[in-house]
Model the fold of this input.
Amino acid sequence: MLRYSLRRATPQDASDLQRSCWQQWETDIIAEMLDRVEKFAAKGRGYAAVSVCDGQVIGYGQLLSWAKVVEISDLIVAPAYRNQGIGTALIHHLIGVAQGWGKTHIEIGAALRNTQALALYRRLGFGEDRLLHLELGNGLEPVVYLKMALGGDGKQNDDNTSASENAWLSTQSRRN
Done:
C-alpha cells in the first residue's frame, strides 16, 4: 500500500511539480499558477494542495471560490502514481475545504477526451452540468464541467441520476 500525505501547496512546490507532473510546462508558468492561488487564498477564496510520497511531490489540486460555486481545477497525479487513490484523496480533501467555506456547490472540469478523469468524477458523485470549448494548449477542445451539491456530508444530492448524465454526455459528444 502506497503511503502518501496531503499538505497545502506553496509557490516553492513549482519545480517539484514541474519534474513530477507537468514536464511540458516551464517552472515559471507553474510558479505563476501557485502565486495566483496564493492571492485568492489571501482573500479567503483559494486553496491548493499537493500529495507527497517519500518526500516527492506527486500530485496537485486547487480550489477557487467564485460567486455561486467553488471550482476544483488543475488536478493532476504523476503518471507513475495514478490509479492508487491519490486523485480521489485530493478531491475529497478539496471538497472538505469547500464545505468549510460554507459553499453549497462544487464543480470540476475535464477535457472530453479524458475519459479516465470523467469516470472518476462521476464515481465520486459529480454530475454533468455543461460543455464548453476551451483552449487547453492545442486549440479549442470540448471540456465537460461536472457539478456536485454539497450537503452536510459532502455528498451529491439525489437529484442527479447516472442514466441522465450518461445520456447528456452522449448527446453532447455527438454534437461535436
Remarks:
- The longest helix spans residues 27-42.
